[in-house]
Each structure stands twice: as C-alpha cells, then as structure tokens.
Design a protein that fits this description.
This protein is mostly beta strands. The chain has four helices and 36 strands. The strands form eight sheets. Strands 2, 3, 4, 5 and 6 form a five-stranded antiparallel β-sheet that branches.
Length: about 500
C-alpha cells in the first residue's frame, strides 16, 4: 500500500495535475492584440503593447487601484513615435526601459531595433538606439532585463542562429552593451524561439517555441540556469499552453501569480493577457527593498542615483534612480548576500548604508527610507570596516572609499572632517586613540588617491558620542563608525 501511495504522489506531481491552475483574463484586454505585460514597482504598474487604437502597436500603461486595474492609457512619450512599438521590459523600479520599434525617429540598424529610455521628471525621455553592437540588420525585438538591469535577453532572426528566430543575451558594460551571444541548443532549435522572460531571481527563464511536441502553435517553455549553464527546457503543459499560441510568461516575484499572453478561444480578441494562479513555475524567492529618498531638512522627495554594491565581491550589482516626483525607489536583491546601498544627488552629501540578507530571509520585503543632507549642512556615516580593536581598513571598505574620492573630486571646493567613534568597551583614553587612528586610516587612503591632505581634518571622539546607548552587540556595532562632516 505504501508503495502504491508513493507512485500516485509521483505521478500527480510530475504530470502537472498536483493542483488546479486557474487561468483568468485581465479586464484590461481589448478586441485587438494585447500582449507582453512588463510589471514593475512590486506589481503595482503594468506596461503592455496593444493595437486597440488601430493596426499600429503602441505601449500602454495601467496601475493597480483599490477597485482593480485602471483604464489603460497610451504612454504619452516619444517612445510611441515609431511605426510599430513592440515588446517592452523595465527595471523593477520602473525608471529604465528597453523596447523594440520599427522605423523609430531615433534611427535604427535594421527592420526592428531595440531602444532604451529613462524616466526623468515623470516623463519617459532620453530615447536611444542600443546601437550596432546589439542591433543587427535583421529583426531584433522582445527584450527582457534581469532584475539588476545588467543582462538583456531578446529574440532575433539574424544570420548564424539555429533556426528562424533565436534567443540572445547581452551584458551591460562600462561602454554600453556587449555583443550578443546566442543561448545555444539548450534553448534554441531549428524552429522559432520567441518572447524570453527572465525571472526576478535572474535564473529562471521562460520562452515560447513552435518546435514539435507541443500542444499547438507556440508553447511556453521553462528552463533554469545554474553555474551560467541552462538545463533542458520543460514544456509548461496545460492549462498554461493550449492549441493556440502562448507568449511572455512573467512570474511575479515572491508570488503565486504569473502573467502570460495567448490568442486562445474565449478571450476579447487577438492576443490577450491572462493571469495564472497558482503559478506552477515560480522563480526562486528574492528580497524586495523599497523606500523614499527625501531632503533631510525640507522632507521633500528627491530623484537620486542609487547604487547597490556586493561588499564581498566589491562589484556593483544594480544602478537605478528614485522617482523624481515621489522619491520612491524599488530594488530586487538576492538572499545570502551583504550589500551596500548608496544614494547621491548633486548638491547633497551622499548616503550609504549596509544591507545584510541571510540566505534564510528570502521572500520578504524590507523598507529603507533615505535622507540626503545638503552640502552646506552635510554629514553622513561611512561604510568603512575594521576588525575589532584594529585601525586597518578591511577590503569591504574599498567601494565606500572610492565613493568618497569621487565625491571630493566632483566637489573640489568642499573640505571635510573625518570623525572616528568606538563602542563602550575599553577606557576613554584607549578609545579616543583608536577612533582617531581609524579616521586617520580613511584620510591616508584618500590622500594616497590624490586628494589634497589640507582638505581633510580628522578627529577621534572615542565612545562619547554613541548613536545608540545600549550594551547589545547591535548597538556596539552601530557605534563603531567613521562619519564624514562637511566643514567648508
């Protein structure tokens, strides 16, 4: 009997019938094609492509409200200036976009090209063609960005692929985007592969293919990346796939919901956007961090540049901006990492803080509001690290030290004072000396990079100015610090 039960559990689990999946059309669909839902800001905003105003495709936007999704509006932007505006992808904060377009005024390389745009003062602008490194003389479309904004997946029928259309990948570099790489036979076939969507975990990839063995037309496939290598793709099965065409399978982060597009019977007409629940192909859980950037004195919201750095590898993992109007920012981070988050804006002292995310804390949301001080009254706590009872800078301090150097170079008239502080362990005399030595260690690094020593004063306050009066390890860790104050 036990053996029979185990066999039944196995069959139910791997035949796709372990639980009922509900497929529901969104109420934003029209009688024409509606597809490619790009969802941002913790699932509050959807960008999608539609032909609802005629035969031409444009990008539309809808927002979630207390009563459901708002009436979709065509994006009022130069983005919608081409003949056919195709699929769109955005970073999680909704401030950077890559889209495809035919005959866009910003000039192109081929039939359909990929373009980028940024949200500035509430408007989508700064439209740029991604250039000949990414675009070809052929059809290049259907982009999908990783949650850190550093890797781009897209479809193309350029020469040299495995079939009619293949899926390619390009990485962000200092100079732009790298030359695209074909994802190879693990993903691409001698048929057509389209609509790649990379999950928020940056590992789970879905795409569509019309290769034999599916349920009909284009089917959605699911594949996982491990050690930069893709596993064998798995057909999503019914009821996700049907005898019609299915594209653009998007899994909401840390959610049981997924969105996809299909022209199956029973919709409003053409391609429609559907919701699947529960999502049988969830991405791995991530950590969602959001907050508001404001002026520390006026409390007005600010549009600031935000950088996320992996402190262990000392590499930037994400660069974004808070919204110019609301000051809101939103970022997806991976568990099991230690990050620094830095916000900077011209005329203000930069802000830095440390975010440690244990591997066991995947799937939760965290709020971190940021206040920026004007240069005239600025001070900030620096993310510099020392071993206990030592004044030698640890390697994790380097990203912050380089940030101070950049700040001082950008503001040549600014002079600073570096102020060292300790916890409450030890004598006053000993802690005064230790705190001064730590401030001097930061100064020496800055001077070695070419910053004039006369611009930098140092002081040690020992344990006399604690941020938190407590004997807990959390309080002591908070009080062991070096602060930077603008003095001129």
């Amino acid at each position: 009997m036990k053996k029979i039960i185990l066999i039944l559990i196995f069959l139910l689990t791997f035949s796709g019938f372990s639980q009922k999946i509900d497929i529901t059309p969104l109420d934003i669909n029209s009688s024409r094609d509606d597809f490619n839902s790009a969802i941002t800001q913790n699932s509050r905003v959807i960008y999608f492509t539609s032909e609802r105003k005629g035969k031409q495709q444009y990008i539309y936007i809808t927002q979630r409200t207390a009563s459901g999704w708002s009436n979709p509006e065509m994006l009022n932007s130069e983005i919608n200036s081409g003949d056919e505006i195709g699929a769109v992808t955005l970073t999680p904060d909704g401030q950077f976009m890559i889209f495809s377009a035919l005959n866009h005024p910003k000039s192109g390389q081929g039939r359909t090209d990929l373009y980028s745009a940024r949200k500035i003062d509430g408007d989508w602008t700064a439209v740029r063609n991604l250039g000949p490194m990414v675009n070809s003389d052929s059809w290049d479309s259907q982009p999908s960005l990783t949650s850190d904004g550093n890797t781009l997946y897209f479809a193309s029928d350029r020469p040299g692929g495995f079939g009619g259309t293949d899926i390619y990948m390009s990485r962000k570099t200092r100079d732009g985007w790298s030359r695209p790489e074909n994802l190879g036979p693990a993903v691409n076939s001698s048929y057509d592969e389209l609509s790649p969507v990379i999950g928020s975990d940056n590992k789970s990839l879905t795409f569509s293919s019309n290769k034999p063995g599916g349920f009909g037309g284009f089917d959605i496939y699911f594949i996982k990346m491990s050690n930069n290598t893709f596993s064998n793709p798995r057909n999503a099965g019914e009821p996700i796939n049907s005898s019609a065409d299915e594209y653009y399978y998007y899994s909401l982060p840390n959610s049981k919901y997924a969105y996809f597009s299909s022209d199956r019977a029973g919709g409003e007409g053409g391609l429609d956007i559907y919701v699947a629940y529960p999502n049988p192909f969830e991405s791995e859980s991530v950590v969602l961090v959001s907050g508001t950037v404001t002026d520390a004195l006026t409390k007005f919201p600010l549009g600031a540049d935000i950088t996320i750095t992996d402190l262990n590898s000392r590499t930037k993992v994400a660069e974004m901006s808070s919204d110019d109007k609301s000051g809101l920012y939103y970022v997806v981070l991976q568990p099991g990492k230690v990050y620094s988050i830095t916000a900077s804006k011209k005329g203000y002292v930069f802000f830095s803080d440390r975010i440690q995310i244990p591997a066991t804390e995947a799937g939760h949301e965290e709020t971190k509001d940021i206040q920026l001080y004007p240069l005239s009254q600025g001070n900030t706590r620096l993310l510099v690290f020392f071993d206990f009872d030592k004044a030698i800078l640890k390697d994790e301090s380097i990203p912050e030290l380089e940030r101070i150097i950049e700040f001082l170079r950008d503001n040549p008239d600014v002079n600073i004072q570096l102020e060292g502080h300790t916890d409450d362990v030890g004598t006053d005399e000993y802690n005064d000396k230790l705190s001064l030595n730590r401030a001097n260690a930061v100064r020496d690094y800055l001077v070695s990079a070419g910053i004039e020593s006369k611009r930098i004063k140092t002081a040690g306050f020992g344990k006399r100015r604690p941020l938190k009066k407590d004997t807990s390890e959390e309080a002591r860790s908070l009080n062991r610090r070096v602060e930077m104050k603008i003095i001129d």
